[in-house]
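Tokens in:
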């Protein structure tokens, strides 16, 4: 009897252990599927598609499991993204091995949840194109309002989806504004072409954008120094990181689509206080000379000096300048420093082959626009005083000289920093913000071929 009892206990224990082991295996496979869902959206490597199929088919062997684990680990390593542990195969528990493979970066869990939700949405037949012929303003009626409300609810912008009202009422306007802010649009509550375009972007396309940009940003951040400045061009935003946290942020203005701000990395070593502006040829011919043709006083009114090819200043009457601007123009413009200078109070110089830099502006009202691709390539910084003060506090030893060089507003002063500040011009069109909200932005330079978002013909709206 005693032997039988022991055997029964052993059988029960063995059965419990088997169930426990199976549960660990299933949880491990789930974690691997979630990682592969992200990788497949980003990578065109057929191995990951096959791995995903193997996990879905339920025909996993120890050999195929090992191959999946090693390929996932290699993928993150190739992108210089740290994972929880590098000794994956030394662990016998499949669940612990799967955990060890997860990228050890902030926001990865939120990314997994968002991707999983978007991919689930993509499996439903809910994303038929929305077509509007006119703008729908707050208080207007449209038979498509219930469809739009449901879509906003599915994307997390509306609180409910039960209303059959065809009126763009206050609750719907709040949801529309929330959606518009998450897509970098003017939050006016009006359903217009850009809002419709983004409402029509499929969940699959959103998942792909989010995954691609997350991997790009994670790879970028893993290689950065402790202190750096990053300008995200499509977001029109600047952030200054110090010891892993954002110490300064600002809206910026970047280059127009036909005069794009380049992607590059450099370091700021000098600040120009009260800069003069040597007008580039392209800007001279495309922007300034048309103004001079209309009114020759433009040169004097905007405090420009004109020089010939021998660097001798040229003096002419307003009428003469207007006439000269109509033909060949062998001169260059330099705008004197002062309160009306186009570059404003500061110019932050960093070496590059594109002659771009950060600077102040005399048109601060432009920062209120949602689309701030307005410059000729340089970056205008709204919080330019904050950036200058941060540099003075952290990168300048001789504080008194810094102060002294600010006294004469009409005199250009170059100031060499005691330490450089790395600056990176990047291009991210999707991310998860600090409030756990997914942000999307237009591909303003059409750099992401697979993510180009264009409104279908049915989404074109007339402003009646």
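Residues out:
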């Amino acid at each position: 009897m005693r032997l039988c009892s022991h055997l029964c206990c052993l059988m029960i224990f063995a059965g419990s252990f088997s169930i426990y082991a199976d549960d660990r295996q299933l949880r491990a496979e789930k974690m691997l599927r979630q990682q592969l869902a992200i990788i497949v959206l980003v990578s065109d490597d057929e191995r990951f598609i096959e791995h995903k199929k193997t996990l879905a088919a339920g025909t996993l062997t120890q050999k195929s499991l090992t191959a999946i684990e090693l390929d996932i680990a290699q993928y993150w390593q190739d992108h210089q993204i740290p994972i929880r542990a590098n000794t994956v195969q030394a662990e016998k528990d499949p669940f612990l091995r799967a955990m060890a493979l997860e990228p050890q970066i902030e926001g990865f869990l939120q990314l997994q949840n968002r991707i999983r939700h978007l991919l689930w949405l993509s499996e439903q037949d809910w994303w038929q194109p929305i077509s509007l012929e006119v703008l729908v303003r707050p208080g207007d009626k449209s038979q498509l309002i219930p469809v739009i409300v449901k879509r906003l609810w599915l994307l997390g912008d509306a609180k409910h989806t039960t209303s059959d009202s065809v009126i763009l009422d206050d609750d719907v306007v709040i949801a529309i504004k929330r959606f518009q802010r998450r897509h970098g649009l003017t939050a006016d509550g009006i359903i217009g072409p850009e809002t419709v375009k983004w409402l029509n972007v499929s969940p699959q396309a959103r998942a792909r954008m989010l995954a691609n940009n997350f991997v790009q940003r994670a790879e970028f951040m893993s290689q950065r120094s402790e202190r750096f400045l990053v300008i995200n061009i499509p977001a029109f935003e600047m952030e200054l990181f110090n010891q892993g946290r954002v110490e300064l942020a600002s809206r910026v203005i970047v280059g127009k689509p036909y005069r794009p701000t380049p992607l590059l990395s450099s370091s700021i070593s000098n600040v120009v206080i009260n800069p003069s502006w040597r007008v580039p040829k392209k800007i001279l011919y495309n922007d300034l000379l048309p103004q001079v043709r209309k009114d020759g006083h433009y040169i004097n009114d905007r405090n420009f000096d004109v020089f010939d090819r021998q660097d001798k200043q040229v003096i002419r009457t307003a009428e003469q300048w207007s006439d000269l601007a109509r033909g060949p123009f062998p001169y260059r413009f330099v705008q004197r420093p002062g309160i009306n200078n186009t570059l404003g109070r500061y110019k932050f110089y960093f070496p590059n082959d594109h002659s771009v830099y950060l600077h102040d502006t005399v048109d601060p009202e432009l920062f209120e626009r949602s689309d701030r691709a307005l410059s000729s390539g340089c970056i205008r910084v709204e919080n330019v005083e904050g950036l200058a003060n941060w540099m003075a506090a952290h990168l300048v030893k001789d504080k008194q000289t810094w102060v002294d060089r600010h006294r004469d507003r009409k005199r250009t002063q170059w100031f060499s920093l005691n330490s450089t500040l790395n600056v990176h011009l990047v291009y991210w069109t999707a991310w998860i913000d600090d409030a756990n909200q997914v942000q999307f932005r237009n591909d303003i330079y059409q750099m992401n071929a697979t993510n180009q978002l264009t409104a279908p013909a049915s989404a074109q709206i007339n402003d009646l």
